[in-house]
């Protein structure tokens, strides 16, 4: 395997599958099976999950809700998603630990960096919930931050598209996909990869990002082996 330790970022929307809202258990189980297959080959995996399938802080703010309050509500939504993914993994017999940046002792561990590192070293999958624990930061930023803290080799952003395009491929049929792109080009071209705070964190810490289609079965395994799937940002 090319990577020893991976940080996988899943959007909340990706857990919806074909649904318009909430969690599609079939989709979550497929992700869990893909994750299990990679973990079985000795790769250490940490995961950050978004919450947009349940609640989006930014959307709530636009409709008049106070931003910090809305963001905290979004953080709680991510924990629901994390619990669903943890359940799917444990159903498959994969040892998993869920850590939250907001304390919720009855359902998960608090985020403790050294404990998370030990879990990874012991072969457990660690899922990080509640973003960074702070309003005004996205789960993309949380993914970059946790990846750096965990000393991950790469951030893998699993989406519903197969990489980064020159424009939105669903709106522009002439859009072409990048195989590889620099952090600076992402900034200059204002490409919608992750938010700028997340990209800056990765750039400053020389942490590569790969954007790929997580919905295609086996893609996660191929990336872990170093196959050129998706778009590499470095």
UniProtKB/TrEMBL annotation:
InterPro entries: AceGlu_kinase-like_sf (IPR036393), Asp/Glu/Uridylate_kinase (IPR001048), Uridylate_kinase (IPR011817), Uridylate_kinase_bac (IPR015963). It is an enzyme of class 2 (transferase). Pathway: Pyrimidine metabolism; CTP biosynthesis via de novo pathway; UDP from UMP (UMPK route): step 1/1. CDD domains: AAK_UMPK-PyrH-Ec. The gene is pyrH. Residues 4-213 form the Aspartate/glutamate/uridylate kinase domain. ATP binds at residues 9-12, 52, 56, 159, 165, 168. One of its GO terms (cellular component) is cytoplasm. Inhibited by UTP. Pfam families: AA_kinase. Keywords: ATP-binding, Cytoplasm, Kinase, Nucleotide-binding, Pyrimidine biosynthesis, Transferase. Its EC number is 2.7.4.22. Belongs to the UMP kinase family. UMP binds at residues 51, 71, 132-139. It is found in: Cytoplasm. One of its GO terms (molecular function) is ATP binding. GO terms for biological process: 'de novo' CTP biosynthetic process; UDP biosynthetic process. It comes from the Bacteria. Homohexamer. The lineage of its organism: Bacteria, Pseudomonadati, Bacteroidota, Sphingobacteriia, Sphingobacteriales. The keyword Protein transport does not apply. This is Uridylate kinase. HAMAP family: PyrH_B (MF_01220_B). Catalyzes the reversible phosphorylation of UMP to UDP. It catalyses: UMP + ATP = UDP + ADP.
């Amino acid at each position: 395997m090319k990577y020893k330790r991976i940080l996988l970022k899943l959007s909340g929307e990706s857990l919806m599958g074909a649904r318009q809202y909430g969690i599609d258990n079939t989709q979550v189980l497929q992700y869990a099976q893909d994750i299990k297959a990679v973990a079985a080959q000795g790769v250490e995996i940490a995961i950050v999950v978004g919450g947009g399938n349940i609640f989006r802080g930014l959307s709530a703010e636009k409709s008049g809700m106070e931003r910090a309050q809305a963001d905290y509500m979004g953080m709680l939504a991510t924990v629901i998603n994390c619990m669903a993914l943890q359940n799917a993994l444990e159903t498959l017999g994969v040892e998993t630990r869920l850590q939250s940046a907001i304390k919720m002792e009855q359902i998960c561990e608090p985020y403790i960096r050294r404990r998370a590192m030990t879990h990874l070293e012991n072969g457990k999958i660690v899922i990080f919930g509640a973003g960074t624990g702070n309003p005004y930061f996205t789960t993309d930023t949380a993914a970059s931050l946790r990846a750096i803290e965990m000393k991950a080799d790469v951030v893998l952003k699993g989406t519903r598209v197969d990489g980064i395009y020159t424009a939105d491929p669903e709106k522009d049929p002439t859009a072409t996909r990048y195989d590889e792109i620099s952090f600076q080009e992402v900034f200059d071209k204002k490409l919608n990869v992750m938010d700028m705070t997340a990209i800056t964190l990765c750039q400053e810490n020389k942490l590569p990002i790969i954007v790929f289609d997580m919905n295609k079965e086996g893609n996660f395994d191929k990336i872990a082996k170093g196959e050129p799937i998706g778009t590499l940002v470095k």
